[in-house]
């Protein structure tokens, strides 16, 4: 749960982090149905994770509800020396699919807030009709699902780097 | 005035006017006054229906005679009454509330007076609207029929009304005509509304400089959904709000603003002189003007019709005399008969004025009427709440108790609506700053007129003040407790001959008195001046003014944001901390070389975090169980206290039900378990492994085609052979020539034949589990020579083998035939001859073996009945599956086998 403010509207977002491993796919797909916004995350230090994004997009198109908002994220922007995927490549891909694009770092907090705010904004825009007339008053719960391209690294205490912005 | 009384008098018994409001019916340019009464009718069978009764009226309605029914609008499913902005115009604070009444048949526009009464009316109407629950009955409005003839112009309305009611009863389009869905979003509450950024300042295009207005906070979202949702403020918003109030000092600072407070009893006169000497001469332009009048209009018309031209005249006179160095915006005008209060602020402050509410309390005749009483405007200026009260208290020297009572009545009855209607209404005393002005009517006591005038002449105001009733009543704590008044350095403001500075020369020859006063209550208030204005001669009173510096809490935007963010973040954190979370010692489980009927267990530990949690393995979407049939989690659900842990065992066991599909490759040792935490997240556990195919669970014909031990065959071959359909005839096709019976069956029977024909209690003693595994491995690897086991173990393995056959020896399709001809040996043999070759072979082979055993019955104590009962239920299995067999069926199956044991083939 996280509360952020967009256009003076307080929005409560619920974030799901789905498992990226291939073998969980049949199950994670089912979770898409409840999402209003989706982050597609790859790792800029992994070419492979970048290439998997296309598959994610098509999964999302197939299983997520109509009108779900997507944003492409290239994470680990702090790891410049290990970079395998260029910024332009990310931009290019995002453009192809009509998504916004951010390079982020969970370590340095780069663009974390921005990308969350942006996705929330997109979701709000998509639901503009329902919001009309409620203007500044609504505080809504939106569900954003976060899809991460998994690099097969073991999950563990290392994850704590992510909590720094929470 | 409560005009519902008048409406009530027109109603039939059992009907009740909940609330009435007087408004203007707008049709094009025409404006006609209408009384709108919300009427409730209780239905006999329970439940209630509502209608809006519209009346014309001849004056402010006091009795039923003053009103006549014009029109009834049933509150049906398609009824809606919603606030609209007039022609896209901007909100003008304190202006009328324009509402639109719609049903499927009509659309009317009304202007209702600004204020909480109207809001209450709108809320009551909203509440009266039938719900959207399709299960509830549509209102029928039969009770309205008697009224219909009393509506005006019945001949004109008849048909229209009829139609209207028909459609109302049908209630057909209720679900698409109302934006009820918004209610859900609205329910989430409304926060941050205290912040200036949420206050919309809007430029008004109107000519007047004085109507550059602030948006009212009372009904910001004018749809019904919002009015309804105001009832249910989110708990979270309330928490945020209260934290914000607690931390107010962190993000606000005190800034002084100059307030002008004036009071003038005008004795029913119209303005004849310029008011500048009172309002603006000799002072700097104040930030806020609070200007009060009493006895604005003494006529009966004003009293009864609530309408007076004087309002406009004095409003204009004040507006024209405001300080010329600044531009002012009118925030609010409120009037109760002759008591009027005006509030202006410098234009640049308009954006920081919010939550404006105005109310009136009459304390006059009958304790209610408006010839005496008070009016008040409350608002929030930046972060400080301010209430300005103008009161005209009871007259006459001896009536000071009455004045005290009026004060108390005003304090207790003056109640302002809150945005959050679940909160109790605000009262005057709940404000940071209270400014109280008016003709309080307290007199000078004990001294005779001449003495008073003499002291005044000597300017001995201090001495005179000692005899002031207000002073003594305050000292006695009988009135204005906690209020302060500045020193009186001016002569009494009452009573003069109109047009002069001469004391009253009329018959009554009133003693002079300080009737007109200004008091205050609150922190950070400094009075800069307190004076009367002798230059004005229109009235028998002189106007009084007082200028204050008032310290107002101003929000530092940046700090406010920070504080708000901190609060929100800490709430989020708290909430997140309350989401249960566990750690799992292991999430991937590999079961290697799984064998038939060989239990393998892998365990892991769930360590709970700080929140008590309930966990459960849940079904994956579209599946009926949380895991595959060969798997089991133990326990599969449970409850964990903070910091506790539990060990979960994953048990893998392949039996006859699951073996065949694992042999055929239709199933694999692969599964994902979803461990779900109540109110928390889902964890995925993955299970993998490999299964070693076995003759157990393999079909008879498959085994016949396996000349090699099953474990020597490539998995692919096992799969193909397992999936091969049962063939009735050996068509001698492409495959290697099959064996007549499965070699595994032969091995077991042969072993028993060689070792166990004389074994006592054969087939009746349990085998050993460890020996079973050994037998299985020997059969599956073909190492039959290694087989050394207890006879009972082998016998049991044979039975297990027969039981694990996916298609029993007597095929399912033949089962019923067999039962039917049981008892008829010839027919029975006939049925057996129709079995697929391998099955027939197996059957005959087994019968021969059993007969062989019977030959040794002296040693092994077996007889036909025992064997028939053991083998009957294995060879003949009901296609109905696990269902318990009826005794009769069992008997027949035994009998069937029995025949073959008694007769030689
Ligand atoms: N340097 C760096 N490491 C990161 C960043 N984000 C995540 N990681 C690390 O990458 C690893 C995988 O992260 P995780 O959140 O488990 O990825 P997931 O499998 O996609 O959920 C962990 O060791 C993290 O600490 C980042 O922005 N920069
Ligand atoms: Mg992850």
TrEMBL record, chain A:
The coenzyme or cofactor needed here is: Mg(2+)
SMART domains linked to this entry: RAB, RAS, RHO
Give a yes or no for keyword Transport in this entry.
yes
Q: Which UniProt keywords apply?
A: Cell membrane, GTP-binding, Hydrolase, Lipoprotein, Magnesium, Membrane, Metal-binding, Methylation, Nucleotide-binding, Prenylation, Protein transport, Transport
Naming one, the record's GO cellular component terms include: plasma membrane
EC code(s) of this entry:
3.6.5.2
| Name used for this protein in its record | Ras-related protein Rab-15
Explain the purpose of this protein.
Answer: The small GTPases Rab are key regulators of intracellular membrane trafficking, from the formation of transport vesicles to their fusion with membranes. Rabs cycle between an inactive GDP-bound form and an active GTP-bound form that is able to recruit to membranes different sets of downstream effectors directly responsible for vesicle formation, movement, tethering and fusion. RAB15 may act in concert with RAB3A in regulating aspects of synaptic vesicle membrane flow within the nerve terminal.
Where does the protein end up? Cell membrane
User: Can the keyword Glycoprotein be found in this entry's annotation?
Assistant: no
- Give one Pfam hit by family name: Ras
InterPro entries from the UniProt entry: P-loop_NTPase, Small_GTP-bd, Small_GTPase, Small_GTPase_Rab
From which organism does this entry originate? Answer: Orycteropus afer afer
Matching SUPFAM superfamilies: P-loop containing nucleoside triphosphate hydrolases
A single Gene Ontology MF term assigned here is:
GTP binding
Outline the subunit composition. The GTP bound form of RAB15 interacts with REP15. Interacts (GTP-bound form) with MICAL1, MICAL3, MICALCL, EHBP1 and EHBP1L1.
Q: Which family does it belong to?
A: Belongs to the small GTPase superfamily. Rab family.
Q: Which reaction does it catalyse?
A: GTP + H2O = GDP + phosphate + H(+)
Domain of life, per the record?
Answer: Eukaryota
Q: What membrane topology is given?
A: Lipid-anchor
Q: Which Gene Ontology BP annotations are present? A: protein transport
Automatic annotation (TrEMBL), chain B:
Give the highest taxon in the source lineage: Eukaryota
What is the protein's given name? Type II inositol 1,4,5-trisphosphate 5-phosphatase
Organism name: Orycteropus afer afer
Its lineage opens with: Eukaryota, Metazoa, Chordata, Craniata, Vertebrata
């Amino acid at each position: 749960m996280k509360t952020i403010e967009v256009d003076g509207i307080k929005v409560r977002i619920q974030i799901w982090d789905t498992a990226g491993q291939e073998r969980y796919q049949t199950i994670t797909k089912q979770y898409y149905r409840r999402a209003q916004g989706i982050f597609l995350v790859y790792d800029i230090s992994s070419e492979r994770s970048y290439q998997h994004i296309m598959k994610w997009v098509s999964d999302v198109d197939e299983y997520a509800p109509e009108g779900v908002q997507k944003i492409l994220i290239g994470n680990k922007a702090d790891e410049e020396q290990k970079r395998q995927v260029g910024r332009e490549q990310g931009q290019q891909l995002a453009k192809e699919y009509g998504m916004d694009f951010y390079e982020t770092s969970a370590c340095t907090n780069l663009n974390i807030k921005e990308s969350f705010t942006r996705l929330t904004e997109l979701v709000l825009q998509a639901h503009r009709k329902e919001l009309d007339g409620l203007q500044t008053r609504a505080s809504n719960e939106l569900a954003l699902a976060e899809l991460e391209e998994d690099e097969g690294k073991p999950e563990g205490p290392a994850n704590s780097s992510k909590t720094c912005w929470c | 005035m409560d005009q519902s009384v008048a409406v009530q008098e027109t109603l039939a018994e059992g009907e009740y006017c909940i609330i009435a409001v007087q408004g203007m019916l707008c049709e094009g340019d025409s404006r006609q006054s209408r009384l709108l009464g919300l009427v409730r009718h209780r239905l006999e069978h329970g439940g209630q229906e509502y209608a809006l009764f519209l009346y014309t009226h001849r004056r402010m309605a006091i009795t039923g005679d003053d009103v006549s029914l014009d029109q009834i609008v049933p509150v049906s499913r398609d009824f809606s009454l919603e606030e609209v902005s007039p022609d896209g115009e901007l909100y003008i604070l304190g202006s009328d509330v324009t509402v639109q009444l719609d049903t499927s048949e009509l659309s009317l526009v009304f202007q209702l007076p600004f204020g909480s009464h109207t809001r209450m009316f709108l809320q009551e109407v909203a509440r009266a609207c039938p719900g959207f629950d399709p299960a509830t009955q549509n209102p029928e409005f039969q009770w309205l029929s008697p009224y219909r003839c009393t509506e005006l112009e019945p001949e004109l309305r008849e048909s229209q009304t009829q139609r209207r009611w028909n459609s109302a009863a049908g209630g057909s389009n209720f679900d698409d005509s109302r934006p009820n869905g918004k209610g859900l979003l609205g329910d989430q509450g409304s926060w941050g509304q205290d912040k200036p950024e949420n206050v919309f300042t809007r430029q008004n295009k109107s000519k007047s400089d004085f109507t550059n207005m602030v948006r009212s906070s009372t009904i910001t979202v004018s749809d019904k959904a919002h009015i309804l949702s105001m009832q249910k403020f989110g708990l979270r918003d309330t928490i945020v709000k209260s934290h914000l109030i607690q931390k107010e000092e962190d993000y606000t600072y005190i800034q002084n603003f100059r307030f002008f407070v004036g009071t003038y009893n005008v004795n029913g006169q119209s303005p004849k002189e310029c008011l500048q000497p009172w309002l603006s001469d000799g002072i700097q332009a104040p930030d806020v003007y609070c200007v009060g009048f009493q006895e604005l209009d003494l006529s009966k018309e004003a009293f009864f019709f609530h309408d007076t031209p004087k309002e406009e005249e004095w409003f204009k006179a004040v507006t024209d005399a405001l300080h010329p160095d600044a531009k002012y915006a009118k925030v609010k005008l409120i009037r109760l008969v002759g008591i009027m209060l005006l509030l202006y602020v410098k234009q640049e402050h308009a954006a920081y004025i919010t939550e404006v509410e105005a109310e009136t309390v009459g304390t006059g005749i009958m304790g209610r009427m408006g010839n005496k009483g008070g009016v008040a405007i409350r608002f929030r200026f930046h972060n400080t709440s301010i209430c300005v009260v103008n009161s005209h208290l009871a007259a006459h020297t001896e009536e000071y108790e009455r004045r005290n009572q009026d004060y108390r009545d005003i304090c207790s009855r003056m109640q302002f609506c809150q945005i959050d209607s679940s909160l109790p209404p605000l009262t005057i005393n709940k404000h940071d700053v209270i400014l109280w002005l008016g003709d309080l009517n307290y007199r000078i006591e004990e001294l005779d007129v001449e003495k008073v005038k003499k002291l005044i002449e000597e300017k001995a105001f201090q001495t005179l003040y000692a005899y002031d009733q207000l002073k003594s009543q305050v000292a006695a704590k009988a009135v204005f407790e906690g209020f302060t008044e500045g020193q009186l350095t001016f002569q009494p403001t009452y009573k003069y001959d109109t047009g002069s500075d001469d004391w009253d020369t009329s018959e009554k020859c009133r003693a002079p008195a300080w009737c007109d006063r200004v008091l205050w209550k609150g922190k950070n208030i400094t009075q800069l001046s307190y004076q009367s204005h002798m230059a004005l001669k229109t009235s028998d009173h002189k106007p009084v003014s007082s200028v204050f510096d008032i310290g107002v809490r101003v929000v530092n935007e940046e700090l406010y944001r920070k504080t708000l963010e901190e609060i929100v973040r800490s709430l989020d954190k708290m909430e997140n901390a309350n989401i249960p979370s566990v750690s799992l010692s292991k999430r991937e489980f590999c079961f290697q070389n799984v064998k038939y009927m060989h239990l393998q267990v892998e365990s892991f530990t769930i360590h709970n975090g700080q929140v008590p949690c309930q966990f459960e393995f849940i079904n994956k979407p579209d599946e009926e169980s949380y895991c595959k049939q060969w798997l089991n989690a133990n326990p599969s659900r449970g409850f964990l206290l903070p910091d506790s842990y539990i060990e979960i065992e994953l048990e893998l066991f392949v039996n006859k039900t699951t073996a065949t599909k694992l042999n055929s490759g239709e199933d694999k040792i692969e599964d994902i378990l979803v461990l779900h935490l109540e109110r928390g997240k889902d964890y995925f556990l993955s299970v993998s492994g490999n299964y070693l195919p076995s003759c157990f669970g393999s079909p008879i014909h498959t085994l016949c085609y396996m000349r090699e031990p099953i474990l020597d065959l490539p998995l692919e071959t096992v799969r193909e052979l397992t999936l091969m359909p049962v063939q009735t005839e050996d068509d001698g096709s492409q495959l290697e020539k099959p064996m007549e019976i499965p070699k595994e069956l032969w091995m077991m029977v042969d072993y028993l034949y060689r070792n166990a024909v004389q074994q006592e209690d054969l087939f009746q003693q349990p085998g050993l589990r460890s020996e079973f595994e050994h037998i299985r491995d020997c059969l599956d690897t073909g190492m039959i020579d290694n087989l050394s086991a207890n006879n009972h173990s082998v016998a049991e393995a044979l039975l297990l083998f027969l039981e694990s056959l996916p298609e029993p020896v007597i095929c399912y399709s033949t089962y019923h035939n067999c039962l039917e001809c049981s008892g008829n040996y010839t027919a029975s043999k006939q049925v057996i001859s129709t079995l697929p070759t391998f099955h027939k072979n197996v059957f005959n082979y087994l019968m021969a073996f059993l007969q062989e055993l019977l030959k040794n019955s002296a040693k092994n104590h077996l007889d036909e009945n025992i064997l028939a009962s053991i083998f009957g239920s294995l060879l003949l299995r009901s296609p109905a599956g696990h269902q318990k067999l009826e005794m009769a069926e069992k008997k027949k199956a035994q009998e069937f086998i029995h025949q073959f044991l008694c007769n030689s083939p």
